[in-house]
Amino acid sequence: MVTTVFVATIGDQANFEDCMTRLKCQSLRCDIEIVDHVAPMSAAFQQMIDRCRTPFYVQVDEDMILFPEAIERLQIMLEQSAPDTAIICAPLWDCDVQRPIQGLKIYRHEIVKQFPYRDLMICEIDQLRRIEAAGYKVVQLPVDGPHCLGEHGKHYTPESIFKRWQRSFQKHLQKGRMPWVAPYPQWLLDRYVETRDPRHLYALLGAIAGIAGAPAADKEQDWRVPNEALERIQRFFPVSHASVNGDCEIETEST
Predict the structure, then answer these.
(1) The domain containing residue 112 runs over which residues?
(2) At what angle are helices 198-212 and 158-175 packed, to 10 degrees?
(3) Where among 136, 152, 168 does a domain terminate?
(4) Nearest-angstrom CA–CA distance, 27 and 10
(5) How confident is the model at residue 11 (pLDDT cuts 50, 70, 90)?
(6) For tag attachment on the chain, is the N or C end more exposed, with fewer CB atoms within 10 Å?
(7) Total count of domains within the chain
(8) Roughly what angle, to the nearest 10 degrees, separates helices 41-51 and 123-133?
């Protein structure tokens, strides 16, 4: 085996089942290992480095749904790259914002094991900067090219989409990352007005929480820590889940 696929999960059943179904249909046979309920996120990523026994490994989050040839294409690209190429990152189609985003990553283990993750808000960017500063290459394939290798975020719940947008704006405002999100608050508002989907409401409220809330600690996400902003929102906008697939509606009180 040349490549190991590591799947990070915190128990999102709908995403995880879809993710694993697609991985089992990959055109390239490879080992699949689960990183189960490890926190914070930097520790989950570090487990992939520590457990890897193959020349390459691919980091897959449970909300990534890969096309059948995705792993094979990544392995071929890294095999054909210069030996000092540490990482190749390919885009995925984001089902929430309807645009391609970065990304699905394949790593050359011999290089990246020299750069352990640190518990910072942008732990992956921090690692990339250290890798490049040491003279290694990180290749980010263009999002507008022919390299989209799957889908991202197909099964959001109100809770998970709130956290997604809250964290995105925290990273953007505190670290100057994710500049593509800057015009999205108005888009999120317009989308909710049009659809009245509670998930779209929670996406908007997550963005507002990230913009107007207190700055988050400079640490990676830890699913074990309660999200106080989300808990307050849920008290005022309780959601009734109608199915496992995430159909839901805002609960209202009769007068």
Answers:
(1) 3-152
(2) 30
(3) 152
(4) 26
(5) very high
(6) C
(7) 2
(8) 50
Claim to verify: residue 99 and residue 198 sit in the same structural domain: no
Averaged pLDDT score across all residues of the chain: 93
**pLDDT number for residue 240:** 76
CA distances from 62 to 36, 66, 177 (A): 10, 10, 23
Among residues 10, 9, 13, which one has the least CA distance to residue 241? 13
Examine residue 87 and state whether it is found in any structural domain, yes or no.
yes
- Which of 107, 134, 152 is the last residue before a domain boundary? 152
User: Which residues pair with residue 59 across a beta bridge?
Assistant: 6, 105
pLDDT above 90 covers a percentage of the chain that reads: 85
Q: Are residues 136 and 242 in the same domain?
A: no
**52 is a domain residue:** yes
Residue with tokens 């980010």: 140
Cα 98 from chain centre? 15
Domain membership flag for residue 255: no
Residue 104, domain member (yes or no) = yes
Continuous segment of H or E residues that includes residue 4: strand 3-9
Q: How many CB atoms lie within 10 A of CB 113?
A: 12
**Token pair for 147:** 């390299």
Altogether, the residues listed in the chain come to a count of 255
d(CA 130, CA 42): 15
pLDDT tens, residue by residue, 49-66 = 999 999 999 999 999 999
